[in-house]
Amino acid sequence: MNPTKIEWCDMTFNPVTGCLHNCEYCYARKIANRFKTESGEFFVKSGIDEWQKWRKGDGIYTRYFNPQFHKDRLDEPQHHKKPRNIFVCSMADLFGDWVPDEIIKKVFEACENAPQHRYLFLTKNQSRYDNLHYKKILPWKALKFGINCWFGVTITNGQQLKPFFDDYNFFLSYEPIMGEIDRLPQNIKWVIAGAETGNRKNKSVPHFYLIEKLVKQCEYQKIPLFMKDSLAGIWGKELIQQYPWEV
Ligand code: SF4
After folding, report:
1. What is the pLDDT of residue 35?
2. Which atom of ligand 1 is nearest to the CA of 92?
3. Nearest to 19 by CA among 105, 99, 102
4. Which protein residue's CA is at the shortest distance from atom 8 of ligand 1?
5. Which of 172, 170, 106, 158 is nearest to 133 (CA)?
6. 28 lines ligand 1 (CB under 6 A)
7. Dihedral pair phi/psi, residue 12, rounded to 5°
C-alpha cells in the first residue's frame, strides 16, 4: 500500500493492476507506462498475444497496463494498524468484465482481514456490481465488514445509470466532468467531482455551470459532495469537501 495525493483517500492498495477500458484521459496507464515496474500473474488467458495485438494496433497498451493479479500484495492492509481510507485498485478496474470472480473474492477477503480500514472501490462497469450482488459476493452494508466498503461508479457525463441498491454504500465519481447530468440517481451516498488534469491534447475543461448544477443537485438531494482541487480554478470559491461518514 502507498500514501497517495488523491485527496479523498489516504492510501492506495493495488492487488490488481491494469485495465482494458482504454479511457483516453487515463492517468493510471500513464503512470504504469512511465515506471514500467509492474510484474504479476496474467489472468487474461491470452495476455501476451493480446498485448502484442494491442501494441500493433493503437500503440496504447503495453504489458505494464495489461490486467495482472499481485497475490503477494494481499496482506498489505493488515500491516497498517491505524485506520485508513483506502482506494482499492487505483491502477485498475477491479470490476472489469475480464477480472474473474475468484480474484475479486480474494481482494474482498484481504480487505475483510483488516477491518480497521474503510475501503473505496471504483468501476466504470456498474453492471458488475449487480452481477456480484446476485452471486452474493459483494459485501453489503448490513454486514459488519460491508459497512466499511464504498462502491463507486465513474461517470463523465449524464450517461444512463442503473438504479442503485439501497443495501450498499454507493457513490458516484464524476470525473473528469465532460457533460451534463440531468438528475443524480437515487440511493447514492456521495459524489466526488473533478476536472481532467495533466497536459493531454484535447483536454476537457468543465464549464462552470456544470459544476454549479452539480452543487445544487447535491444540496437538493442532500448528498455529500467532494470537489477535488482540480476544480478550484473553475469554481473560484471555497471547495466543498464533504465525506459521507462525517456529515
Ligand atoms: S477505467 Fe480508469 S483505469 Fe481503466 S482506462 Fe479508464 S481511467 Fe484508466
Report:
1. 64
2. 3
3. 99
4. 26
5. 170
6. yes
7. -115, 150
Question: Which atom in ligand 1 lies closest to the alpha carbon of residue 91?
Answer: 3
Q: How many residues in total does the chain contain?
A: 247
Cell of 29: 496507464
| Confidence at residue 120, expressed as pLDDT on a 0 to 100 scale | 98
Question: What is the C-alpha to C-alpha distance for residues 54 and 59, in angstroms, rounded to an integer?
Answer: 6
User: In this structure, which amino acid lies at residue 54?
Assistant: W
In whole angstroms, give the CA distance from residue 158 to residue 230: 20
Among 77, 86, 73, 74, residue whose Cα is nearest residue 4 = 86
- Distance CA(236)–CA(117), nearest Å, equals 34
DSSP SS3 for 70: coil
Annotate 69-101 with b (16+ C-beta within 10 A) or e (fewer).
beeebbebbeebeeebbbbbbbbbbbbbebbee
Q: What is the pLDDT of residue 44?
A: 43
Which atom of ligand 1 lies closest to the CA of 21? 5
Q: H or E stretch including 28?
A: helix 27-35
Q: Pick from 74, 151, 167: which is nearest to 112 by CA?
A: 74
Record the cell numbers describing residue 111, joined without a space: 480487505
Nine cell digits for residue 214: 452539480
Question: Which letter does DSSP use for residue 18 in this model?
Answer: B
Q: What is the mean pLDDT of each run of 10 residues along the chain (247 residues)?
A: 91 91 86 59 42 39 69 94 97 93 94 96 96 95 87 90 90 95 91 89 87 97 96 96 93
Q: Which residue among 6, 12, 21 has the greatest number of ligand 1 atoms within 8 angstroms of its CB, and so is best to mutate?
A: 21
Amino acid, single-letter form, for residue 57: G
